[in-house]
Amino acid sequence: MESYDGTTAAIDETFLTTTIVHNRMYQEYAITNLAYLTPMDQDEMHRLNLEHELFNRVFDHRLIFPPINRLRRVLDCGFGTAQWASAVAEENPGCEVIAVDINAAMAVEELPGNLYLQIDDLNRRFTFPAHNFDIVHSQMMATGIHVNRWAQYLRDMYHVTRGGGWVQLVELYYNVQSDNGSLSDDHALRQWSARYLESMEGLKDLRVPLRLPNLMRDAGFVDVEHRMIQLPTCGWSTERRDRDIGEANRENVQQMLSSLAIYPFAERLGMPIQDVHLLIAQARLEANDPALKAYFPLYVCIRPSINAKFVLG
Length: 313
Prior knowledge:
- The protein is of the alpha/beta class.
- It is about 35% helix and about 20% strand.
- The chain contains 9 helices and 10 strands.
- Strands 3, 4, 5, 6, 7, 8, 9 and 10 form an 8-stranded mixed beta sheet that branches.
């Protein structure tokens, strides 16, 4: 493992072992410690790349929302395939980008020279120096951060962000909604959401996207801005831009409904794997039905507030 000061440290062997559960590959450390219950295989790598391209479309290819004139050091929490961190490093060659994740197996092979990956569990306290980063970025971490860790997680961000620096959070709320109110509790897609939230109860806070502003204020941040964006599950919108986003999100959603659910539904809820696959198949059909106008709420939270125009579509 390469650290941001250019030195090299050995990777803890516990992070390298994998295990197969219901024909998907998981990191054994993540499963044993209930840190991350989503596969870490080629299929999931493909989905995360789709998700990265989707967010590029949603955010108009803006990687960093705040108006920072000169980046010196960036922290990316939960780098996944390292697409975001790589893009930031390439766009800012004079900046050091430090990215942390529980697993580097899905990261792109060729990394910019100013990007340094660190393997660690973000449920542990940060060890970076205080006031060290111009911006701290955390994206799609609700399924990884423990329910009792969030308050300290944000305090850790506050501690390592320099004065006048920024924090940028992006989280999906997995409680699927309908733009025309046609989804009911009898629909498989709504049942998928209910089961997923139930499966993570007491372990992960999947409702944290709704609580981010208060959590950030409690951590010491001020002037917090919080926005919700509809992510259509398919191309149902009559607005061209939103329809294009829905079309781009279709395959991601189809894969996400399976990858997120397999382990928690079967292993935490005790559902027979055949029933898990059946519910996923039914939910996929409904997610792909334009008449239901289904979407997942995506929340963006930053501090401080932005004086410049801030439009997320």
